[in-house]
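Workshop exercise sheet. Pairs work together: one partner reads the sequence aloud, the other fills in the structure field after running the prediction. Swap roles for the next sheet.
Pair: D.N. / O.F.
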Amino acid sequence: MEEREWRIVYDDSLKDKFKKGPKSGTPSHYIPFKPGQELYTVVLPDNRTVKIALSRKALREKLYLQNAPHVTILSLQDIGTF
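Structure field:
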C-alpha cells in the first residue's frame, strides 16, 4: 500500500488459473473471480476514476450482484496515507 502499486506475479504454475479473453478489445488473459465471494474491494487511484468506473453499467452489474455481497470501490484519496 505504501508504494501504491500492487502486482500479480506470474509463474507457470498459475497458467491453469488464467482464462483467455472472451473477445477482441479485452485483455488476452485474465484471472476469473466471483464478486462478493473472491473479490471484496477495488482500490482505484482517485475519485475521478471511481466516478468513471461507476458510470459503466456493465461494470456495476458485475460488482453489485443481487445474490452476493457488493464489492466496495474506494479511491486512494478515500484511504489517505497511513
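Discussion prompt: Residues 11 and 21 are 19 Å apart (CA to CA). What would you look at next?
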